[in-house]
Design a protein that fits this description.
It contains 1 helix and 4 strands. By secondary structure, the chain is an alpha+beta fold. The strands form 2 sheets. It has a two-stranded antiparallel sheet with strand order 1-2. The longest helix is centred in the middle third of the chain and has 42 residues, at about 55-95. The protein starts with 5 loop residues before the first strand and ends with a strand.
């Protein structure tokens, strides 16, 4: 923003008037050394690092914690497998006592195929028939009574 002219002094010489003469126009060019130049390089290399811990105790603690974690996860998995098998055994046994099972052609037949029901203490529901008998209420009188 350059302001060289626009007003005149008492001797009629041009002086700045506070308003830019050519606002937004490029007034001049000047070369400035920046040191920037084109650069075309190609580099190849490799890097390698060798390190060893200064405190092996922390490394051993980390390995032990990882081993304990793996054992805990294995035990949780074994507990869940046992729970699954016991539930399967219980349900298949209850259904077998009731006479309920999958058909042999069913893909689920093999789920309960290895379950055996032994020492059943409950008596299945059944009926007995009792023949008609003659009961005497008096020494001389015999009546025929049927017992259901």
């Amino acid at each position: 923003m350059l302001d060289l002219t626009g007003d005149f002094d008492d001797d009629n010489n041009p002086i700045p008037d506070g308003i830019p003469d050519n606002p937004g126009d490029i007034l001049y060019y000047r070369d400035i050394r920046t040191g920037q130049k084109d650069n075309y390089n190609w580099n190849a290399g490799f890097s390698a690092t060798i390190s060893w811990p200064l405190d092996r105790k922390q490394q051993e603690l980390c390995k032990e914690a990882a081993q304990n974690h793996n054992e805990l996860r294995g035990q949780i998995l074994a507990n869940r497998r046992l729970e699954f098998e016991l539930t399967r055994l219980t349900k298949c046994g209850e259904l077998a006592q009731k006479g309920i099972s999958f058909a042999k052609w069913s893909p689920y037949y093999r789920l309960c195929q290895d379950v055996q029901v032994q020492n059943v203490t409950g008596v299945p529901q059944h009926r007995h028939t009792i023949p008609n008998q003659k009961i005497s209420t008096d020494a001389n009188d015999l009546k025929e009574v049927s017992i259901p």
